[in-house]
Design goal:
With 683 residues, the chain is an alpha+beta fold. 49% of the residues lie in helices and 11% in strands. It contains 24 helices and 23 strands. Strand 16 (458-459) and strand 17 form a beta hairpin. The radius of gyration is 25 Å and the shape is globular. The protein starts with 9 loop residues before the first helix and ends with a helix.
């Protein structure tokens, strides 16, 4: 009996009609395995995952495979976005056994959850042989299987251990991290490493803050060139905005087409900050378009943001987004069609090759349809942001028409569950963009998302990770949820001047300090009263999203600056000291930690503008434009309730007045933009 029909996860619902007797992750599934004395298959993936769809189509929808799984195993389906704790434990096991990881993840475990064989995608013939071999080994070589599982758990426990060396995350370490990123940087294409190439958003945020603190031209150039290369590449949707998950090549041309909320939230922050520091019109445009994509394409009726758009459309990756020269002419006419082909680098040869989707390293072509050879993903081959007005107008008209045509095509599915941490990242990004633009649309969206998180995701004082269609799910919030949402609430406090957001942030941080703290200043990723897994995860590295540790530190730093309560800053410094040794060795995997480290090194500044009209006040605008890295900024009436930074700070001579402080030591109050900018420049 398949038990997924009542799941809240769209990924689990995709498997509700499989001939596999799937269980959701639950104690009852493991009890059933013990009762039957059979091993467990733990299959982990997510709704927008191309190769998860492939394995489902090849194997999980197949009656023969379903029978093998049902006869000899208890099968559990896990949405890694809903249960990142489960995913983290078994991904570490998979990497320990195979040297690599990815999704779909396929784990064979004992009835107590101990993994003994792990892998990723298996073509159906390989998977059938594997099922038969594991079933035989369980019957005939049980002791060897259990011994191997114990060794895997020991390796996993070591990889996820807390404790270890600590060091202050000081200027020397941050400078060394920036230098290391500069050495590893792809001078030709931007970014880091080869194919597949992922947007290094957190590293770019760090480099932009490092440049602002030090004046490093190298840090700025790495960030600027990478941002431009990505924005001109096929990884960026040239018609509707928003970034795909990664590029299957080294030069950002052909994307893996899924669009994830967390990538776009972090990239919105990156392009916003690049624009703030340089005035780059391309960065300004991409930031605005990315914000619009998040609100328009990922917005849910309840006010949150959906998790992702699928990589596939009707089983074909890239179907919605690819074009031929003939299709451009058909949509635009002969002249504009040729102009668009040149502008967007659409050629007869095309940018796709057969099976251009990036398979896991142990994968093989899957037999599903791919986009036809000779089609192209749109890239921006010509400069439009500084083009003559008539060229820019033609480009906008062509984009609008192509978007209309594209909207008539089949569209990718949407994973519409609301993930707390990713929505928190989005709120912070939207608030930062609003601070520079004053855009009421992004401001309203940020507040709306915050309301969803506050009203639906906090249950009995504890944070839940997911909701869908307005119904909150059962999975408890992990550390990254508490950090990202608390940081978002701090951002909303700065945007609105309302004390309730700061109160909510403090409550989440208190839960984190009480329930997630580890000895020596670190943090576990799960609470002390959460479901007990094979090991308790505690990963300090930043990967696709900030680690739980980096996220909670960012929130602690912001909250301490906004309230003046030093114990939160002390907790942040202690946690960062556990990551500092990794920053010095592996800068690419500690981008968010280094970003927060830059904020602490700069103060962070606390800037309060006392004014009757915060919207449009030149002092407020100057504070946002010139603030040092990680500064907190509030504006409102003198003594405004619920805003500690406005307490006991009067206007000078009845004029709007700015108070700039660093580490709770304040400059003299000023009433002119020139004086405020001068104070913020003396660091």
């Amino acid at each position: 009996m398949n038990r997924l029909a009542d799941a809240t996860s769209p990924y689990l619902l995709q498997h509700a009609d499989n001939p596999v007797d799937w269980w959701p992750w639950c104690a009852e599934a493991f009890a059933e395995a013990k009762r039957r004395d059979v091993p467990v298959i733990i299959s982990v993936g997510y709704a927008a995952c191309h190769w998860c769809h492939v394995m489902a189509h090849e194997s999980f929808e197949n009656e023969q495979v379903g029978a093998l799984m049902n006869d000899d195993f208890v099968s559990i389906k896990v949405d890694r976005e809903e249960r990142p704790d489960v995913d983290a434990v078994y991904m570490t096991a998979t990497q320990a056994m195979t040297g690599q990881g990815g999704w779909p993840m396929t784990v064979f475990a004992t009835p107590d959850g101990t993994p003994f064989f792990c892998g990723t995608y298996f073509p159906r013939p390989n998977f059938v042989r594997l099922l038969q071999s594991v079933a035989t080994a369980w019957r005939d070589q049980r002791d060897a299987v259990i011994t191997q599982g114990a060794a895997v758990v020991e390796a996993v426990g070591g990889a996820q251990a807390v404790g270890g060396p600590t060091a202050p995350l000081d200027a020397a370490l941050l400078d060394a991290a920036a230098e290391q990123l500069g050495r590893e940087y792809d001078e030709v294409n931007g970014g880091f490493g080869g194919a597949p190439k992922f947007p290094p958003h957190m590293n770019l945020l760090f480099l932009l803050r490092h440049h602002q603190r030090t004046g490093s031209a190298r840090s700025l150039e790495v960030a600027r060139h990478t941002c431009e290369a990505m924005a001109r590449g096929g990884i960026y949707d040239q018609l509707a905005g928003g970034f795909a998950r990664y590029s299957v090549d080294a030069h950002w041309t052909v994307p893996h087409f899924e669009k994830m909320l967390y990538d776009n939230a972090l990239l919105l922050r990156t392009y916003t900050q690049l624009w703030r520091l340089t005035g780059d019109p391309l960065a300004a445009r991409v930031a605005a378009e990315t914000a619009a994509f998040m609100i328009d394409d990922l917005g849910t009726p309840e006010g949150g943001l959906a998790s992702a758009l699928d990589a596939d459309t009707e089983g074909v990756e890239g179907l919605t987004y690819s074009w031929t020269p003939a299709q451009l002419v058909e949509a635009l006419g002969e002249d504009d069609g040729r102009f668009a082909a040149d502008l967007f680098a659409v050629t007869e040869q095309g940018t796709f090759a057969p099976h251009s989707a990036s398979a896991p390293q142990d994968g093989a072509p899957d037999g599903r349809r791919g986009v036809e050879h000779g089609t192209s993903v749109l890239r921006l081959a010509r400069d439009v942001d500084d083009a003559a007005p008539e060229v820019a107008a033609r480009w906008e008209r062509i984009r609008a028409r192509l978007r209309e045509v594209r909207d008539t095509r089949p569209q990718p599915a949407r994973d519409d569950k609301v993930v707390a941490s990713w929505n928190g990242l989005a709120v912070t990004a939207l608030v930062e963009h609003t601070a520079l633009t004053g855009d009421p649309v992004t401001a309203a969206a940020a507040i709306r998302i915050g309301e969803v998180l506050a009203e639906r995701h906090i249950v009995d004082g504890r944070l839940r990770r997911v909701s869908r269609a307005g119904v909150v799910g059962e999975p408890a919030g992990v550390l990254e949820d508490h950090g990202c949402v608390a940081e978002a609430f701090c951002a909303l406090h700065q945007l609105t001047g309302e004390g309730r957001w700061l109160t909510l942030a403090g409550r989440l941080l208190d839960v984190a300090l009480e329930r997630f703290a580890a000895p020596g200043g670190g943090f576990y990723d799960t609470a002390d009263d959460a479901e007990r897994l094979v090991t308790r995860p505690a990963d300090p590295t930043d990967n696709a999203t900030p680690s739980g540790r980096s996220a909670i530190v960012a929130a602690l730093v912001a909250y301490a600056a906004l309230t003046g309560e030093t114990r939160y800053r002390e907790a942040a410094e202690a946690a960062l000291s556990t990551v500092a040794p990794i920053v010095g060795r592996h800068a690419r995997f500690t981008g968010y930690a280094a970003t927060v480290g830059e904020a602490l090194l700069s103060g962070p500044y606390e800037i309060a503008v006392v004014t009757d009209e915060p919207t449009g006040d030149p002092l407020v605008a100057a504070a946002h434009r010139h603030a040092p890295p990680g500064a907190v900024i509030v504006a409102g009436r003198p003594g405004q309730a619920g805003v500690p930074l406005l307490a006991d700070r009067p206007m000078v001579d009845g004029r709007p007045t700015a108070y700039a402080c660093r580490g709770f030591v304040c400059e003299r109050p000023v009433t002119t933009v020139e004086d405020l900018v001068g104070q913020l420049g003396r660091r």
